[in-house]
Amino acid sequence: MILAGCSEEDKETCFKEKFMPAVEKTFPVLIRYLKESGSGFFFKNGVSWVDFFIANKVLSLNGFHPELFEKYNELKEHCDRVHSLPQLKNYLEKREKTPF
After folding, report:
1. Cross-strand bridge partners of residue 46
2. Predicted pLDDT at 37
3. Is the dihedral of CA 44, 79, 21, 1 positive or negative?
4. What pLDDT is attached to residue 97?
5. What's the Cα-to-Cα distance from 96 to each of 59, 87, 91, 93, rounded to whole Å?
6. Where are the alpha helices (DSSP H) in 38-85?
7. Contact 55, 75 (CB under 8 A)
8. In sequence order, which residues have a C-beta less than 8 Å from that of residue 26 and are 6 or more positions away?
9. H helices then E strands: how many in the chain?
10. DSSP character for 8?
11. Higher-confidence position of 86 and 8
12. The Albumin domain covers which part of the protein (predicted)?
C-alpha cells in the first residue's frame, strides 16, 4: 500500500509518521461508539450502513496491515460480525476475492 505523497522507498516511514497517528486517534473513538451502543454494531437499533462502511474499510486495512488489529481487535471482531450476517455471508463466500 502506498500512501499519498510517499514514494515506494519511504512507505514504512510514511506509514509510521502519517497513517499511524490517524489510526491511534480514530480507532479508539470507533471502539468507544461500538461499546456505547451495546448492540455489537454502531447504533443501538442494530446494523446500519455505517457498520457496512466501517467493516469494508477494516477488511481492506487488515489485508494490508493485519498488525493494526492486534491492538484494535474490537474493530476486526465487528468486521467479522457484519460479514457473518446471513444476508451477506453467502454472497461474500461466493464473490471473487480481490487481492490486496
Report:
1. 43
2. 96
3. negative
4. 77
5. 15, 17, 10, 8
6. 49-64, 68-71, 73-83
7. no
8. none
9. 6, 0
10. G
11. 86
12. 1-24
> What's this model's pTM, rounded to 2 decimal places?
0.81
Q: Using alpha carbons, list the distances in angstroms from residue 4 to 19, 24, 53, 74.
A: 10, 19, 21, 27
pLDDT tens digits, 17-56: 888 999 999 999 999 999 999 999 999 999 999 999 999 9
Residue type at 91 in one-letter notation: Y
Amino acid at site 39: S
Extract the C-alpha cell encoding 62.
487488515
Largest CA distance in the chain: 46
* The residue type at 46: G
Q: How many CB atoms lie within 10 A of CB 30?
A: 18
89: pLDDT strictly greater than 70: yes
Q: Which three cell numbers stand for residue 29?
A: 473513538
Dist CA 33 CA 27 (whole Å): 10
* Cell numbers linked to 59: 477488511
